[in-house]
Amino acid sequence: MWSRIVNANFMALGAGGFVGYILSITMGSILLSWMYRGSGHSILIVALWHGLFDFVSASPVAEGTGNAVISGVVIVWVILILRTAARRR
Description:
Elements: H1 2-38, H2 43-58, H3 65-88
């Protein structure tokens, strides 16, 4: 039952939406890992960020453009993290 719902949701995204989903999961993973390591391995910091991100991105204010802006901020943040890490090498 659960797999049918999940598969239907992924199919509704289409190819472009699925690529965007994979990109957002990857960027989110990098950001959360960076926060975890940078905070001295604090799960609390990661949980607070994730909770606030979910709250903001799921609010009615974030529908459409708001959600794109929030995701864009995360993507830019991760690009800056990766560029900084590359310079340190």
